Amino acid sequence: MERRSFVKLGILSLPSLALGQSTEVNGNGLFVRSGADRFGETHSLGFSTISFKVCSADTGGGMFTMEHDNLGKGGPNRHMHPDQDEWLFAMEGEFQVEVGKNRMILKPGDSILMPRKVPHVWAQVSDKPGKLLIAFTPAGRMEAFFRDFGKTGKLPSESAVLSSYGIERVGPPLQL
Questions:
Q1: SS3 of 169, please?
Q2: CATH topology (fold) of 33-171
Q3: SUPFAM superfamilies attached here (predicted)?
Q4: What residues does each domain of the chain span?
Q5: Which helix (H) or strand (E) holds 124?
Q6: Closest to 142 in 3D by CA, of 55, 20, 36
């Protein structure tokens, strides 16, 4: 087989990157396009679009990473994770964040680590939609939580349901 035909055949056999699918890179990494979901799926909690970037199975349960896009004003209830650290990276918009008793504003390029067992809450506060990259480590059941409730378009309100995913609600959302 000619080299040109071999290269063409190799390129044609790759999964389509234009369709938002992820592609393993020579078995040494994982490539996911900006704004795309790891599996080409759609997830929403009604107030944002969620794209899975790095899933639990990709890291042996070590990490789950997702992108929250098109976030309107507001955010989740004050909560904590007994077993996961949560990291936020502001990509677009501004976010008021409270970790323990400390309050700050995240602007694009800023990040914050919210340690396990420490109550925290965040809210998108800018007039234009915001975008966050969020990572949980270890992954725990966070991917399952966003997969399960990303189908319904709304968050559960029952404490027992939340705790089954490793989330404890400890207060209301931030007042804007």
A1: strand
A2: Jelly Rolls (2.60.120)
A3: RmlC-like cupins
A4: 33-171
A5: strand 120-124
A6: 55
- Are the beta carbons of 76 and 68 closer than 8 angstroms? no
Tokens 């209830």 belong to 77
Of the candidates 33, 34, 52, the one whose C-alpha atom is nearest the C-alpha of residue 42 is 52
At residue 42, the 3 state secondary structure works out as coil
Concatenate the DSSP letters of all residues of 45-108 into one string.
Answer: -SSSEEEEEE-GGGGTTS-EEEEEEEE-SB-PPEEE-SS-EEEEEEEES-EEEEETTEEEEE-T
Torsion of CA 39, 75, 141, 154, to 10 degrees: -70
Looking at residue 119, what DSSP letter applies?
-
How many whole angstroms separate alpha carbon 85 and alpha carbon 89?
13
Looking up tokens 């340690």 gives 115
